[in-house]
């Protein structure tokens, strides 16, 4: 049975979770060379593997979703402002 598409709110929540897991993975990987305690190193490796698994599960949920609407909001379609001239302040 196909999964129904995510609502905007659900997509934002999944995106936030994906960002969180990515940060966790980056921190665990970055601290890898600084940690000397074996137990802490093992725990950080476990956290890294769990974050990678979570990322792999979350990414397909966002795959194929449009990054923005088909058309930008009308307020973004304003005409460009003319360049300003550099005026000397006296």
Automatic annotation (TrEMBL):
Residues 68-90 have a biased composition (Polar residues). It comes from the Bacteria. Residues 66-90 are annotated as: Disordered. InterPro entries: Ferritin-like. This is Uncharacterized protein.
